[in-house]
Amino acid sequence: MIKVGVVGGTGYTGVELLRLLAQHPEVELKAITSRGEAGLPVADMFPSLRRRVDLRFVDPQSADLTACDVVFFATPNGIAMQQAVELVEAGVKVIDLAADFRISDIAEWEKWYGMKHACPELVAEAVYGLPEVNREAVRKARVVANPGCYPTAVQLGFLPLVEAGVLELDGLVADAKSGVSGGGRKAETHILFSESADNFQAYGVAGHRHLPEIRQGLERFANAPVGLTFVPHLTPMIRGIHATLYGRLKKDVDLQALFEERFAGEPFVDVMPKGSHPSTRSVRSANMCRIAVHRPQGGDVVVVLSVIDNLVKGAAGQAVQNMNILFDLPEITGLGQIPVMP
Fold it and tell me: Vertex 315, ends 312 and 321: CA angle to 5°?
């Protein structure tokens, strides 16, 4: 059994991670930390976990995380980098669901996240945990930087096109919409029901923290500079991301075949039949990205529709997928949940 610790188990990503780990046949949960809720039974805060998780929250200072095989950080940005070195030196694998290790350029990271990085030496070796691209590197990693939710949907949608070199790279557009759970489990005005219900709003147009992460990934796929406009939106739903992606073709290509061939055998990417329009509800609570590719009016513009559950393939599910790779388990282990309908 894999001995697992979870740092920060009180947010939406944290409880989603616990839901998946509690069902995983090869996992033994050893510690779930929270400063504010130390001593409280986890199932008292999250009744959905009653009879599945019997642990109490423990203070991070008293938790023996070095006794774990792997520790997940479901914490705000800036926490994992404070503790990762000690864990790695003790032989513990680290999977960070925040952004501390995602961006390789330290100065760029510090600009976007507004703090000094505590362990830049680990950033250089951390593996970006997008399995469809970095599977073999993840297998040997000590630190896995779990991708963000928007970056997962956008990068997977653009991946076949950028890898194949069939797009003009200076004018890519990612128009993405997210449910309010992407804002976290906290009290902020913009995600209150009375503010977000019956409303639809763009934000971060001048610049969003996920922009450099997405651009870094696309430039690695292309091995060339990429010009990207990324506009996120908040939608009145709880879960889900819908990314509509635009690019201009520079050569003729069978788009459907390109996508089907690139993702053949990928357990968590579903290329939909030609002409499809995937919905966020079709991936709700599942570790799945559904993609459809279009060429409107047969012109030179390609439109890709990419949908994920922001809390699963966009966060906790992808983290468990990375754990499975780290410990040489089939990637689908513990992740076979069928999307919830309606």
Answer: 75
Q: Which among 182, 169, 196, 164 is positioned nearest to 242, based on CA atoms?
A: 182
Total number of domains constituting the chain: 2
Query: Which residues form the catalytic set?
Result: 149
Do 154 and 301 have their domain in common? yes
Assess if residue 221 is contained within a domain. Answer: yes
Residue 161 to residues 78, 153, 156, 158, 246: CA-CA distances in angstroms? 34, 14, 10, 6, 11
pTM above 0.90, yes or no: yes
What is the extent of the structural domain holding 25?
2-125
Q: What angle do CA 243, 289, 69 make, to 5 degrees?
A: 120
Backbone angles phi, psi at 94, to 5 degrees: -120, 130
pLDDT tens digit sequence for 167-223:
999 999 999 999 999 888 876 777 788 888 899 999 999 999 999 999 999 999 999
Residues 229 and 304 in one domain: yes
How many helices (H) and strands (E) the chain has is answered by 11, 14
The CATH number of whichever domain residue 178 belongs to comes to 3.30.360.10
